[in-house]
């Protein structure tokens, strides 16, 4: 039986159920401490498996297409934070100060990996470049996101996070990734064979962080501070940020003369933000009581970008001017 198109994917439904569970049955006290330890272990395992899955060749592949990668990284770690700051007069009145900080944190995150590559493939874009760019963005985010969070949240007038948090990033995220790279020679083939099964580690770790973060936020009175009107305003904020990012990546790639295939890669890799990286980074970088409000904009933006970009991918895929079509056409006489 075909799944109706209006029903969200299983992971989105799981996120909704997790938030509902945390709202009705939040963990606290010793249970919260236990869940915190379990979550830390799950996040370490997640980055370990990412390190084991990503080949060294993939890390350095595509480096010759430096203009494309430079533009994507510029949008991901440069233009996006500027969008969040420049649109403050528009965005801040729609939401609470805590949720606006969540939008700023969202703007500092690296790009997605799996969905950016999958959408580029569906749209018949430059898939090898997407693999290289998305993978490198995820790795660079471990270093650049903490710096950006410090800069833009200080600019916003808040204390932001301490540079000491970089040490926690190294310990909880980078070290497992490096160990995964070291262990790749022994377990790399097994990880590749079970790639589809490993998505449950990704999703399970995210659900754990969402549950613990929302539990603490609910105990601290999150839902008494976030009204239906505020949620509607947050949806509008996410739509504005995504719309501006998609417009800028599309227009800039065309003005710089990139091919349609490269344009697709720039649009899908340069306009998306990673929930998988964002939630662990929020847990490490920010005060625990603030993570719940930070996670909410990421969750809404994540689903919105998937839905909008899926429509764009199908429109790109429907084009007739592709290398394969051009090669099949007879040469002009």
UniProtKB/TrEMBL annotation:
Keyword terms: Membrane, Transmembrane, Transmembrane helix
Membrane-spanning ranges: 34-54, 66-87, 99-119, 131-153, 204-224, 230-251, 281-301
Keyword Transmembrane found: yes
Pfam families membership: SBF_like
Domain of life: Bacteria
InterPro entries on file: Na+/solute_symporter_sf, Put_Na-Bile_cotransptr
Keyword S-adenosyl-L-methionine: no
PANTHER family linked: SODIUM_BILE ACID COTRANSPORTER 7, SOLUTE CARRIER FAMILY 10 MEMBER 7
Name of the protein in question: Bile acid:sodium symporter
């Amino acid at each position: 039986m075909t799944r109706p198109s209006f029903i969200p994917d299983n992971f989105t439904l799981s996120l909704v159920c997790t938030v509902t569970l945390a709202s009705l049955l939040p963990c606290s006290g010793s249970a919260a401490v236990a869940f915190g330890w379990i979550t830390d272990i799950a996040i370490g395992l997640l980055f370990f498996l990412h390190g084991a899955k990503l080949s060294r060749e993939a890390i350095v592949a595509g480096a010759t297409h430096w203009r494309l990668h430079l533009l994507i990284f510029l949008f991901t770690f440069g233009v996006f934070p500027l969008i969040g700051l420049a649109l403050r007069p528009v965005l801040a009145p729609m939401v609470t100060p805590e949720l606006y900080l969540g939008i700023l944190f969202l703007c500092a995150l690296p790009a997605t990996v799996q969905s950016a590559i999958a959408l580029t493939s569906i749209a018949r874009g430059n898939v090898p470049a997407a693999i290289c760019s998305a993978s490198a963005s995820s790795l660079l985010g471990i270093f650049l996101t903490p710096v950006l969070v410090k800069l833009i949240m200080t600019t916003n007038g808040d204390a932001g996070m301490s540079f000491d948090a970089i040490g926690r990033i190294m310990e909880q995220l980078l070290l497992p990734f490096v160990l995964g790279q070291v262990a790749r020679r022994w377990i790399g083939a097994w990880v590749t064979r079970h790639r589809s099964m490993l998505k449950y580690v990704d999703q399970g770790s995210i659900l754990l962080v969402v549950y613990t973060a929302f539990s603490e936020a609910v105990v601290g009175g999150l839902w008494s501070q976030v009204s239906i009107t505020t949620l509607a305003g947050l949806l509008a904020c996410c739509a504005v940020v995504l719309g501006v990012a998609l417009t800028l990546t599309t227009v800039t790639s065309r003005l710089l003369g990139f091919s349609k295939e490269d344009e697709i890669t720039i649009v899908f890799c340069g306009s998306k933000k990673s929930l998988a990286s964002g939630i662990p980074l929020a847990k490490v970088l920010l005060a625990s009581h603030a993570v719940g409000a930070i996670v909410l904009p990421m969750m809404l933006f994540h689903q919105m970008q998937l839905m909008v970009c899926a429509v764009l991918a199908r429109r790109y895929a429907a084009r007739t001017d592709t290398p394969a079509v051009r090669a099949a056409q007879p040469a002009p006489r």
